[in-house]
Amino acid sequence: MSDALAAALTIDGLVKDVGPFPALDGRMKRVISDLSLTAHFGQVTVLLGSNGAGKTTTLECAQGLQRRQGGNISLLGQDPEKADASLRARVGVMLQDGGLPPAMRPVQLLELVAGMYQNPLPVNELAEQLGINEFANTTIRRLSGGQKQRVALAAALIGRPEVVFLDEPSAGLDPQSRQLVFDLIRQLRADGLAVILTTHLLDDAQRLADYVYIIDDGRTVAEGTVPELLSNAAKVEAERSFSFDASAALDFSGALRAEVAIVETRPGSYLLTGPLLPEDLAALATWWAEHHVMPSAINLASHSLEDVFLDIANAAAAERSGT
Questions:
Q1: Are 54 and 181 contained in the same domain?
Q2: Which residues form the ABC transporter domain (predicted)?
Q3: How does pLDDT run across 4-20, given as a tens digit for each residue?
Q4: Which of 136, 163, 176, 282 registers the highest number of CB atoms within 10 A of its CB?
Q5: Are residues 122 and 257 in the same domain?
Q6: At a CB cut-off of 8 Å and minimum separation 6, what does 236 contact?
Q7: pLDDT tens readout for residues 97-106
Q8: Number of domains present in the structure of the chain
Q9: Bond prior to 20 in cis (omega within 30° of 0)
Q10: In contact, 109 and 158? CB cutoff 8 Å
């Protein structure tokens, strides 16, 4: 297995055009614009974005399934567009539509796929881990969407890959199946694999990601660990049963660091925003003690990844529209 935290995939300045389209007078449409990312071994890298943002296209370019018009891609040290069989054997791919043969049964398919590799995972063990044995004798065409997802994931993992691409892996899964898939993804990370997945589900990203790239309109609009993305959205709200006078409010503002802003949202209710630290909370408590103030309510919370995503998506949409 490759060294943990070494780069398994690097994308630098990816450009992808599709078309031509009659509605564009026969011109091509740019769907990926100067997108860059890095995915490391021993980490789950998440491409987060709404439907149509360019996540799947980015993955397909990274796998060599679509030709790019610009930029450089290195997958396990090779250009995926020029990859040979040795690279393919080291990469597992789970496509969003699955691409599973409808007439086959799950275990039959997994045994067929396993036969393509020199040292595959035991089919029975993988089928048991993903709960596939429950419907092993049912043809794929009769499976539910979530069951097909589990079979597609097993097929992507059967060859013991070093890098796994998962396109919307929890789509259509019931809560129990989703937990099975999440547990397996965490195990892949612990085993040192590079896991690259796309999702539009914010909870998936928050629960699984070591590093997140937020994609909008074919561009990376934000990136970071989940705590980094959330760090500037932390907030403290203190509600009191009375209003401060102007001088008291001014004194209170001066007790805080410059990075922390205070806004009176309504009489007696104050919102603190910024990267809050323990000393900020200590300053808040000290001010209360010095002024003999007992707050009627305190709400200490952080924005969710959903809040961050919506803020970024709305800002990107406003930029595109020129507003």
A1: yes
A2: 9-242
A3: 678 999 999 999 999 88
A4: 163
A5: no
A6: 271, 272, 276, 280, 281, 284, 298, 299, 300
A7: 667 999 999 9
A8: 2
A9: yes
A10: no
